[in-house]
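Researcher: I'm preparing a figure for a lab meeting and need a structural model of a single chain. I don't have an experimental structure, so a prediction will have to do for now. The sequence is pasted below. Please return the structure as tokens so I can convert it later.
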Amino acid sequence: MNITEYLENVRPLLDKRIREIAKTLHFSRLMLRQVEGGKRLRGTLTLLTCEALGGDIKKALDYAAAVEIVHAATLTHDDYIDKHKMRRGLKPLYAILDPRRAVLIGDMLMAAAIKYVNAEDGSKDALSDAIYDISRGAFLEPLNPTVFLRSLMSGKELQESYLMIIKLKTAVLFATASKLGAIAAKSSMKEEAYRYGMAVGEAFQVADDLSDITKIIKNEEIDLGTLITLGPLIAYFVGIKETIPLIMSGLIKLHDNTYRFPPETIKILKQAQTNALQFINDRLKIAKENLNSFPENDYTNLLKEYPDYAVGRMLEESNTSLQKPNV
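Model: Understood. Here is the structure written out token by token.
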């Protein structure tokens, strides 16, 4: 069995449990709408880690569902903050209801998820910490590109802020998903599992952000969310000095879709793409190294396949491969 087959095997179990939980909540129709679809990468990671460490998948199912419900809640919030126009082929909830009610649905989903993990084994603390860190990461994100540009020009913006944001906003939920699998298995290897998931999550988020770079290189329409992401990304992978003209070009493009980025800006984006792909490959290596102390079995072998699969799925969306591109 390979990782694709494993996902196909466990997905019906995971989907069924998520739907069962959503149906018990108030406004269940809206709750179901928010939790349906998606790749189920985080919940699958919980189940797979549990099995790799000798646990029973049934003991991890509620934990896996809780992780996926938290993820759905964060997307509900992000859609409004970043003004996304579509999510999984549907209009985002804030556009269907209104922003206030959409955010409250996200809040209720997070609160509901915590009910399905235990206080006794530390899983409730692990998930609560993850929710706290995800919110902290979102708070650190520069939500106004004009303000971010001013901070760059004044020298206040730290180059390392991008790495902190991706750790908190995305990687921490992958890390927690893997840790919850270890907890469900009653394993002593919780921290190794957490570090494995963290490295996978960092690589995954950078792969996601690469799709924004690809859009701009192709001169496609830019939105506010993309511009918010690009500032810290370019500062981290290329440099603060190079980020300033890119943000200025992005602000023009935001208001004039006929504007084309100048060649020097495209060169910066391609350099960021190259450096980001190197970062991804480095993190994938780190993730696999954290499995060295895991027991040798078929499920651990699947965990070795998982990082390339998860990141590869994301890179497919931007027509990018893990091979370092030519600049």
